[in-house]
């Protein structure tokens, strides 16, 4: 996609997209749009508050000369906060896709990706000194299951895409 196409797409606001299709939406689609808008607003507030708390934490650490990223507990705390922000932003992005009418519901792949981000955060903040081997094994197993699920969904999408191309080719040949 060219930069001009991208900018032209970005001109429309989510609310105008919703307003454009409001008359043709059924009751549940309208309900879904309202919920998505409200969730998007709430998550935006959470992101802003979390960002200010992260900035406050960094400033306090800078002022007290406690900002030493080589200290494991400082690293855990800061990157845990950063990962939490990234997870919230990804979640908000998936809701915005519903508002922009690109998808009707939150996609399974998006949920899997958010779960993978949450696990990555968990591994970053995990204190291996106090964590049992069984808990680490369990988390590793969950990572494996999520990776397999993501791969299966990607394969399904690839096969569906190939089927669509095959049908399109058949239609072109019959014309």
Automatic annotation (TrEMBL):
Pfam families referenced in this protein's UniProt entry, alphabetically: PsiE
Domain of life: Bacteria
Name of the protein in its database record: Diguanylate cyclase
Keyword set includes Transmembrane helix: yes
UniProt keyword Nucleus present: no
Primary localization: membrane
Membrane-related topology note: Multi-pass membrane protein
InterPro entries per record: P_starv_induced_PsiE-like
Organism the protein comes from: Methylophaga thalassica
Residue ranges crossing the lipid bilayer per the database entry: 34-54, 74-91, 103-124, 136-153
Location relative to the cell: Cell membrane
Keywords attached to this entry: Cell membrane, Membrane, Transmembrane, Transmembrane helix
């Amino acid at each position: 996609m060219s930069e001009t196409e991208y900018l032209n797409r970005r001109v429309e606001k989510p609310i105008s997209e919703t307003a454009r299709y409001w008359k043709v939406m059924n009751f549940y689609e309208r309900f879904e749009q309202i919920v998505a808008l409200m969730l998007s607003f709430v998550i935006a507030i959470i992101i802003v508050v979390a960002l200010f708390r992260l900035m406050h934490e960094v400033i306090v650490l800078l002022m007290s000369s406690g900002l030493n990223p080589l200290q494991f507990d400082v690293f855990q705390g800061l990157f845990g906060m950063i990962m939490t922000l990234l997870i919230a932003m990804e979640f908000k992005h998936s809701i915005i896709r519903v508002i922009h009418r690109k998808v009707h519901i939150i996609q399974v792949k998006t949920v899997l990706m958010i779960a993978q981000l949450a696990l990555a955060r968990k591994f970053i903040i995990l204190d291996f000194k106090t964590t049992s081997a069984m808990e680490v094994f369990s988390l590793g197993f969950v990572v494996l299951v999520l990776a397999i699920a993501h791969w299966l969904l990607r394969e399904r999408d690839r096969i569906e895409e190939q089927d669509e191309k095959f049908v399109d080719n058949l239609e072109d040949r019959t014309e």
